[in-house]
Design a protein that fits this description.
The chain is α+β, with helices and mostly antiparallel strands and about 280 residues long. Helices cover about 30% and strands about 25% of the residues. It contains 9 helices and 15 strands. Strands 1-6-13-14-15 form a 5-stranded mixed sheet, sandwiched between helices. Strands 3-5-11-7 form a 4-stranded antiparallel sheet. The chain has a two-stranded antiparallel ribbon with strand order 2-12. The protein is elongated. The relative contact order is 0.21.
């Protein structure tokens, strides 16, 4: 099977765009670091979440309690969520020339520009099942790690019926426990939904909710999941040589390090020059 064929249906692969400096760190450490959901670009995730409160306790709640609960719920559900972000293949949008690769995960022009330093970085390709298993192994098993596709709609957090609604009686017994119970049922709505403006990314996420300090760094070894490294059209020759060396150390043959070039605006993956691969 030609990994870079435009005639393939969507494959169970994950694609991660990155800048040159981060690329070398990922390959050198053979690991992927999770980022805070609160640092994502979408304002739905970078802005504070405000839960609604059902007052089911005698005497009501104080203003201090309400303010504290709002902050603690946002901390438990948004600030503690950590993600690794990817895209994937899609079905072709319509009939095109034979071999067109626009639908492949490594062929996203805007993502090359935005996330890979204007085509100077790379797109890492991973086997989806193996990578998710690696994350589960490193971060605490299937119950600790979640994986899924992002859905897109223009709706404020909590607008859906019953969303981000808590009983005061539950919060008095413990905010952390109430938030954990809520997340078990509603994690897809909260952590796998973005504004429609981002829909072209067709994002997939590995998710982990931090049980310890928010500042704890979480990363996991990607093991044997790396399938290929596709360098950008504007990547420098010295970076190409470094990546070939790092990829070999990570167990990837040099033939699976390639470059995405654009011919007449159409993406094509081409081999690196022999002098670089050798």
């Amino acid at each position: 099977m030609d990994l870079f064929s435009g005639d393939l249906p969507p494959l169970p692969l994950l694609y991660h765009y990155t800048k040159p400096k981060t690329l070398k760190l990922i390959l050198g450490s053979k690991s992927i670091r999770l980022s805070s959901l609160a640092r994502m670009k979408d304002a739905r995730e970078s802005s504070k979440w405000y839960p609604s409160l059902r007052v089911d306790v005698e005497g009501g709640v104080t203003n201090d309690e309400h303010r504290r609960w709002v902050t603690e719920i946002d901390d438990a559900l948004r600030q503690r969520a950590k993600v690794a972000c990817f895209t994937g293949d899609r079905f072709p949008s319509g009939p095109g020339a034979d071999g067109d690769q626009f639908h492949r995960g490594y062929a996203r022009a805007r993502m090359w520009d935005q996330y890979a330093d204007h085509h100077k970085g790379a797109c890492l390709i991973f086997d989806q099942d193996v990578l998710v298993q690696q994350a589960e192994h490193a971060l605490g098993g299937h119950n600790a790690v979640r994986f899924g596709r992002v859905s897109y709609e223009d709706r404020r957090v909590g607008d859906a019926k019953g969303m981000l609604q808590f009983n005061a009686s539950d919060l008095r017994r413990g905010v952390a426990e109430a938030a954990e119970h809520y997340l078990d049922t509603n994690w897809q709505e909260l952590l796998l939904t973005k504004n429609l403006d981002w829909a072209s990314e067709e994002e997939r996420r590995i998710l982990f909710v931090e049980p310890d300090s928010i500042k704890t760094i979480r990363e996991f070894n990607f093991g044997e999941s790396l399938v290929s490294v596709v360098l950008g059209e504007s990547s420098r020759p010295e970076l190409q040589a470094q990546v070939v060396s790092l990829a070999k150390s990570a167990g990837l043959p040099s033939c699976m390090v390639a470059q995405c070039s654009w011919f007449g605006g159409s993406p094509q993956v081409i081999p690196l020059p022999p002098a670089v691969r050798e």
